[in-house]
Amino acid sequence: MIYANALKDFSQIFKQPHYLPATITAQSQPYLDVYRNNVLANRSANLANTYPTIVQLVGDEFFAALAAKYIAETSAHSGNLHDDGVGFPAFLSTFPHVADLPYLSDVARLDWAIHQAHYSIDLAPIDISQLQSYTAEQFGQLKLILHPACAVIQSILWPIYQILMMHHGESPANLQSGGEQVWVWRDHWQIISSSEALFLERLLAGDYIETAMLASNDDTSPLLAQLFSCGLVCQIQK
């Protein structure tokens, strides 16, 4: 049997509890239950660690049921557990039993961004002294390569920052207050305006500094300075 086909066949044990892969003997079948249960338990625990705000919103028992349903429908595509759960926000957006909590998917996107930022690779920031060689006009025509931990999460309808901070000891979220934008980087998050979110998104997309600032239609120079002061600019390009 081709190795790839054997692995595909073996993976059926996670969808069909009594399935016996062609490469496994009947004597070994009882041990498949142990393996299956360990894998499912590890994935479930990892999802809870990845989405702590969702766990607090729905409770441990209900989250365990959510995780079991997600795992049953979604194969793991990486050997690294930190990569598992990427499709969980989309799953929540269509899962009928959480329809009365319509903000869950957006909050999950924020949890996922925080998780990814925490486990992102380390990259050294640029030496800002090299910026002294550029005029103001030349500076505007630079592109900034930001740290891979940087992300912008936006919700059109829901106050995702308030919901997140509510579970970090702050006041209850006002669900009627409208959407919010959150800038995430390594173990940090910050609420930002829609114009600041657009500015960061344009930089992340590879726009020139001047182009990104003009698109935002607002003064984003304080945010630009923060990128440098926080060591989040890893490279500059002309």
Automatic annotation (TrEMBL):
InterPro entries the UniProt entry points to: DUF2063, DUF2063_N_sf
Ranges where the Putative DNA-binding domain occurs: 18-92
Pfam families: DUF2063 (PF09836)
Superkingdom, taxonomy of origin: Bacteria
Protein name, entry field: Putative DNA-binding domain-containing protein
Organism the protein comes from: Iodobacter fluviatilis
